[in-house]
Structure formats: structure tokens, C-alpha cells
Write a structure and sequence with these properties.
336 residues; mainly beta; Lipocalin; 2 domains; 5-stranded mixed beta sheet; 5-stranded antiparallel beta sheet; 1 helix; 29 strands; 46% strand
Length: 336
């Protein structure tokens, strides 16, 4: 075959040769363990707006605040609160905006939905961050002033206990003395001979309890927000603020095994050996705890989800849309 014939043949098959070359480069450049890419899905879910028909809230529905999600007698109860708006009037001192406490109950498959709420008129301030809901003796309770930052026991706080059940919400008494809450970045955490504490807003230090010597220190990219958890020699925790991440650190050496950039981790949980958390997009992630590799991502079409709770292989959680409207969500998990 002459040179001209070979050139003509090459020109005819050049697109094919180029495609093969690109695919070969992709194979050569692929790292070990990347053969199976993380599974990104629009998972099966149901989203129901949390609202009260014909009621307007001060600040709109975006100001509704979650107080808890609980399984109670075969139902999932979403507990939240807001301030009811009042008719337009000239600004007056001590205008009372009724405090609305709402409980939306769903069947486990979200096909049955019931709602109850109570309106409370009081001058005191309802601090949602200080409230706590819990199940006790087969009944659901809300303590509106269960915990408070140390040294900040506000006497003007709305402090009542409510029972939720039987198709209604009723006040059962005043809140007992609140628990003093000390955030994790203001405490010393002990793991055997190791003592962990934040010596500055972004510096984590580990000391030996027996010798008092510094074993290691680590510079963080944001504020410590979660508790520490030690498992199989790896210390897990989350930071939030600018540069928020989820960390896996060797307890023995302080070596940073991974620091997954979530945009801010204020809470996380375990699920079947994986770390379950939320990223800056509002997607639900499952990480390999040994190396921080993302194993699965669940995406929800414009909704940003919260971590929620898992019950019978479903995640019961809340979500916000682009207008910050609040939704109750049921997310089906596969068996993997």
C-alpha cells in the first residue's frame, strides 16, 4: 500500500482512533478504586408542605422552626412552631404574637396525615434552640425551655411543658429548671488517656492525661460544632462556618485521614457502617468512614434536606425549597 493510500485510510478512521485514544487516557488516568463511581440518584421520596390552612405566620412560613421528629405509636410526628401574625395595626408596645405549636402526624407510608396545634398568648420569648421534645411512657412531650447556654438563664423565656397525643396538644405545667448546655468547643473530652480541647477557635489539642504533655495538635478550617466520636482508632467530628468539614483523624498521631468538604457539618449519624451527613447542596451523603470516600449521594430536585431519622429503612426528615418553605419528607432507602 502506497503512502497516499495509507494517508487516505487514516483520515477516514481518524475520529475512531481519536475516540479510542481518549478512552485509553481515561482508563490510564483512573485511580484505583474508582471503577465504581458513587451513585447519585433522585431517590424515591414524598414531600408534604408543613403549614396551617388559612393561617399566616409572622415572617411567613419560612420562619417555621422544627422542634423534633419522633416515632410514636406507629406514626411519625413532626413537631414545629412559629408566630402567628396579627391584623395590621400601628406599632404598639408589647404587641403579642401568638405562639403556635404544631404537630403533624403521618402514617409510616405518608398516606395518612393529621394535624393538631395549640395557640399560646404570652409575652415571654419562645427560644426554639432551647426547646427539647422527647417520648416518655408512650407519650410525646415538649419542654420549651429544656436547656440553655451556661450563664444565660433568661427569665423572660417561654417555659412550659406540653403533651402531644390523643389528637391534641395540652399544657401540663411549667418547665423545670433548665439544663445548662455547654457546647463541645468549650469542654474537655476524655478518651482513655487522651484529653481533647479547643485551645483557640480553630486549634484542636490532644494531651496525655497521665503526663500532661501535648500528644498532637490540629489546625481546623472552621468552628467545632459536633461532639467527638472515637471508633476503631479514628476520631470523627464536624466543623461549621466558612470552611466547614467532616473529619476523620487518627487518635494516636493526630494524622488527618480525611477532611470531607461539606460546607458545614452540624450533625451526622451512622447508617449500616457508613457516615450519613448533608453537604452544602442539601444532598444526603453516605461516606466510607475509613477514608472519607463518598459512596452514595441522594439528590432531591431543588430541595435541601436535613439529616432526619431512619426508621424501617426510610428517612423521615424535613426539607426547604428555594423560598425556604418547610416540608415533611419520607425518603425510601434501598437495601444496600
Amino acid at each position: 500500500m502506497g503512502f497516499g493510500a495509507m494517508a487516505l485510510l487514516f483520515s477516514c478512521f481518524r475520529p475512531y482512533f481519536y475516540l479510542c485514544f481518549i478512552q485509553l487516557c481515561a482508563i490510564i488516568g483512573r485511580k484505583s478504586g474508582d471503577e465504581k463511581m458513587p451513585n447519585t440518584t433522585n431517590n424515591k421520596y414524598t414531600a408534604v408542605p408543613l403549614m396551617i390552612e388559612n393561617m399566616t405566620f409572622r415572617g411567613g412560613e419560612s420562619w417555621l422552626t422544627m422542634l423534633g421528629i419522633h416515632e410514636l405509636n406507629g406514626e411519625i410526628v413532626y413537631l414545629y412552631n412559629g408566630l402567628q401574625d396579627v391584623p395590621f395595626e400601628d406599632p404598639k408596645e408589647k404587641t403579642i404574637f401568638p405562639k403556635i405549636i404544631v404537630a403533624d402526624s403521618f402514617s409510616l407510608d405518608f398516606t395518612v396525615h393529621n394535624q393538631t396545634y395549640i395557640s399560646c398568648k404570652a409575652y415571654q420569648v419562645f427560644y426554639s434552640s432551647h426547646a427539647g421534645s422527647f417520648v416518655q411512657g408512650g407519650k410525646l412531650f415538649l419542654n420549651t425551655f429544656k436547656k440553655a447556654p451556661i450563664g444565660k438563664l433568661d427569665k423572660e423565656a417561654f417555659a412550659k411543658v406540653f403533651e402531644i397525643g390523643g389528637g391534641g396538644i395540652r399544657e401540663v405545667g411549667d418547665s423545670p429548671e433548665p439544663e445548662e448546655r455547654i457546647t463541645s468547643d468549650h469542654r474537655t473530652h476524655y478518651f482513655g488517656d487522651y484529653a481533647l480541647c479547643m485551645t483557640s477557635p480553630f486549634k484542636l489539642e490532644c494531651k496525655s492525661v497521665s503526663t500532661g504533655e501535648i500528644v498532637w495538635s490540629l489546625r481546623l478550617t472552621a468552628y467545632l460544632y459536633t461532639e467527638f466520636e472515637l471508633k476503631d482508632g479514628i476520631l470523627y467530628f464536624g466543623t461549621a462556618g466558612k470552611g466547614g468539614r467532616f473529619y476523620g483523624v487518627s487518635m494516636e498521631s493526630g494524622h488527618e485521614i480525611f477532611a470531607y468538604d461539606t460546607g458545614g457539618t452540624t450533625c451526622w449519624a451512622w447508617h449500616k457502617g457508613y457516615v450519613r451527613l448533608i453537604d452544602r447542596k442539601g444532598d444526603l451523603l453516605f461516606l466510607n468512614p475509613k477514608n472519607g470516600t463518598m459512596m452514595k449521594r441522594l439528590h432531591f430536585r431543588g430541595l435541601k434536606v436535613a439529616l432526619g431519622k431512619i426508621y424501617e429503612n426510610c428517612i423521615y426528615t424535613t426539607a426547604r425549597d428555594k423560598t425556604n418553605k418547610l416540608y415533611a419528607m419520607r425518603v425510601e432507602l434501598d437495601c444496600g
